[in-house]
Design brief:
The chain has 339 residues and is an alpha/beta fold. It folds into 3 domains: 59 residues, 434 Repressor (Amino-terminal Domain); 117 residues, Rossmann fold (3-Layer(aba) Sandwich), CATH 3.40.50; 129 residues, Rossmann fold, CATH 3.40.50.2300. Helix content is 40%, strand content 15%. The protein contains 13 helices and 12 strands. A 6-stranded parallel sheet has the order 2-1-3-4-5-11, sandwiched between helices. Strands 7-6-8-9-10-12 form a 6-stranded mixed sheet, sandwiched between helices. The two termini are 38 Å apart. The relative contact order is 0.14.
């Protein structure tokens, strides 16, 4: 997307962001309907005409958010957003929502949260962590709007765009770090969700264990489980597998939640048991000791989903575009090093 500075009033008349759909149509020598179809990437528009329309739009400073406003006969200036409903209080999802809202505001768009399959009037839709077994998600995928998903979607239907992170590489790096710190029997407390990131973590853990001749210690907790359930899962693990020397928690906040159970089992985090999280958060940073975690950059993820959706709506990104958000491990004292 162009920077806001492209709207500067010092630009020559007719070349700034004040350009309209009609201006682009006149400049390209086509109808407004053809311009709309070309910008969307829809309709019976030849490649040559589409290129001419896009070139004219760029020359006149016709910005993506203005394009989005002109794409539908019912102008909404709105994007719809769906996140797992019972996790709206989780730090990752709240940060994601803020990222969506901030970037949408920069593009002149409103955001409305969707909690059911019934969509409000909107120009496009963002689905965060879409689960293929969620009937609401399936209904939204079928709603006829351009859809961008945060993480890949494993169900039927193809989104117009995807923004994802390489959880396989990040978890492999984390497990290698634990091994370098002396852990030989790391366990994974996975989430039982069917979201792509959760399944990717489980597959990666199984491959890593097989590659290092390690017996997998996989336990699952319900997605969004309360702290007492997570503590129960870890307590049973440590009772059944007392040789466990490292625990990786998949879910947001889970690693900090299980600290009391680890202490009650007589273990010392950062010394005889290493602890890490697949999601960084304030709880990881302020725990005692602070917990090594993977920074998923949810605010940036939300912003990137809006950027991609605007690009698709404006015809500047083809349907099927895949974007990525880099994620990084943050080493802290819970794995025997860091701060």
């Amino acid at each position: 997307m162009r920077r806001v500075a492209a709207r500067s009033p010092r630009k020559p008349a007719g070349s700034g962001a004040s350009a309209t759909l009609a201006d682009v149509a006149r400049g390209a020598g086509v109808s407004k309907t053809t311009v709309s179809d070309a910008l969307r990437g829809h309709g019976r528009v030849s490649d040559a005409t589409r290129r001419a329309v896009l070139d004219t739009a760029r020359r006149l400073g016709y910005t993506p958010n203005r394009s989005a406003r002109s794409l539908r006969t019912s102008v909404t200036d709105t994007v719809a957003l769906h996140i797992p409903e019972f996790l709206t209080g989780a730090e990752y999802y709240m940060s994601f929502v803020f990222g969506v809202a901030e970037q949408a505001a920069r593009a002149g768009l409103n955001v409305t949260l969707v909690s059911s399959g019934r969509l409000p009037q909107a120009d496009g839709l963002i689905l965060c962590d879409p689960m293929p077994d969620n009937p609401v998600v399936a209904e939204l995928m079928d709603a006829g709007l351009p859809v961008v998903t945060a993480e890949r979607y494993g169900g039927e239907g193809r989104p117009a765009g995807v923004v994802w992170s390489d959880h396989e590489t990040a978890l492999t790096e984390l497990l290698d770090h634990l091994r370098a710190r002396g852990a030989r029997g790391p366990a994974l407390i996975a989430s039982d969700t069917t979201a792509d990131w959760a399944l990717t973590l489980q597959r990666t853990y199984a491959r890593w264990c097989a590659g290092h001749g390690v017996r997998p210690l996989l336990r699952k907790a319900p997605f969004g489980a309360p702290p007492e359930v997570l503590r129960s899962v870890v307590g049973e693990l440590l009772a059944e597998e007392p040789e466990t020397d490292a625990i990786v928690c998949a879910a947001d906040g889970a690693a900090a939640a299980v600290l009391p159970e680890i202490r009650s089992a007589g273990r010392v985090v950062g010394e005889d048991l290493l602890l890490a999280s697949c999601v960084d958060s304030l709880a990881m940073r302020t725990a005692e000791p602070p917990i090594t975690a993977i920074d998923l950059r949810p605010r940036h993820m939300g912003a990137e989903c809006v950027r991609l959706l605007c690009g698709i709506l404006a015809g500047e990104a083809p349907s099927g575009t895949i974007g990525t958000v880099a994620i990084d491990m943050v080493v802290r004292a819970s794995t025997g090093s860091g701060r």
